[in-house]
Amino acid sequence: MTDRIIAIKESLTQKLKLQLTGAEAFAARHPRALTGTVVTLLTGFAVTAFGIAPLAPDAKELPQTLVEQSIPHPDLDAQLAALAEHQIGLSRNELTRSSDTADSLLKRMGAFDPAAAQFLRNDPDARRLLQGRAGKMVQLTADASGTVQSLVARFQAERPEQQSSHFSRLSISRQGQGFSAKFETLPLQAQVRLASGSIRSSLFAATDEARIPDAVASQMAEMFSGDIDFHRELKKGDRFSIVFESLTADGEPINWEGAGGRLVAGEFVNNGKTYTSVWFKDSVTGKSNFYGFDGSSKRRAFLASPMEFSRVTSGFAMRFHPIHQTWRKHLGVDYGAPTGTPVRSVGDGTVEFAGWQNGFGNVVHIRHSGERTTVYAHLSRIDVKKGQKIEQAQRVGAVGATGWATGPHLHFEFRVKGAHQDPRAIARAAEAVVLPNYARGQFQQVVAQVKTQLSVAQTVDGSTSAD
């Protein structure tokens, strides 16, 4: 009986060796569709065949019956042929660059397809991919030879009024020997996300490491600007946790200017002291603001700065005038920033003047309550009109170098009854916005919810979805 079992083993082994020899020969004929990994897996069947062993050490003493049965073996040649016909695909994501051409973009994404490149150059819709701003999100699918099968690009909506709420999607697909393109404008979707981080060098290095959009990072700095001087008081080891709404295009997070998302709540531990804040919208007035969890407002009647981030190049003091070459009292604050940087109103008010004014160049005057006026000078553009009602933080123009300016910067003034005052002192002393009594019940419900989310955010390394 033992000799017959050995004979059966040898017969099976011989058959498997013949089939494996055929598989190896097939692999040599089709090197691109098959790798040595397939042959190695098939060899494992031979190992399994030799795994036959007696059921127990005393198997000879048990009754034995010889059963012969023909076991059909799969046709390995047919299976290998089917595997060779399977197309291996390539899928890759990239961002467009300002220097991209149709050919360079496809090459960087691992595709070689002159026909696809020509379509990108000639089709009216496909040309949108390389027009306008760089940074478009592109997803490409190609076959094993590098021939493009499909391309989808998502980018900021082209119409200015839609750029904070919609995105454009360009879909290109192969149709036989040619291509077709479809261009759509679709609404962005909001997704609640959690993030946390710690300070090693700077606030923005920490938010970048936590994958927090720039717009949300700016809102966090604004949220706690009344509690923490981020230029002087920030310390290594300080930590933060936030809840924010991230806008997505087809589920992909975006970080486009004007559509970076909204901060919902935050906790910041600075030098051992904890500060908390939540964004709350008054359902009656429709106005929103950041509040501490106790209901105290984080917003004052005037912001500390007319720009989110900048450096003060000349304060409210005596200075040597760069053009007149004399020492003069500087009746405002100059903020150095690149041309085009958005300039915002520091408070609610009405546009009193918007136009050209001698040394100020393009300038905007806004009248506020209490006989107070703010001035924004040397603008490269003006985005408001005389008589227009303005809300705090609303854009009024952009940094420039018009009028008597030696370089791009914003000259900002604060006047009370016509007399010049130090803008930063006025902002610090400005009255706080009070949470109405009728809104406190709803506010406490919001606080209870975000407290739970912030406790989870503290355990998050980087940014993650809260869904």
How far apart, in Å, are the first and last alpha carbons? Answer: 65 Å
Q: Are there runs of 5+ residues with pLDDT below 50, and where?
A: 31-56, 310-329
CATH architecture of the largest domain: Roll
Query: Any idea what the radius of gyration is?
Result: 34 Å
Helix content: 10-25%
Number of distinct helices: 9
State the domain count. Answer: 4
Gist?
With 467 residues, the chain is of the alpha+beta class.
Question: Could you walk me through the main structural features you see in this protein, from its secondary elements to its overall organization?
Answer:
The relative contact order is 0.08. The strands form four sheets. Strands 12, 15, 16, 17, 18, 19, 20, 21, 22 and 23 form a ten-stranded antiparallel sheet that branches. Strands 6, 7, 8, 9, 10, 11 and 24 form a seven-stranded antiparallel sheet that branches. The chain folds into four domains: 2-85, no CATH class; 89-187, Nuclear Transport Factor 2, Chain: A; 189-299 and 445-465, Nuclear Transport Factor 2, Chain: A (Roll); 311-429, Glucose Permease (Domain IIA), CATH 2.70.70.10. Helices cover 24% and strands 33% of the residues. With 467 residues, it is α+β, with helices and mostly antiparallel strands. Strand 7 and strand 8 form a beta hairpin.
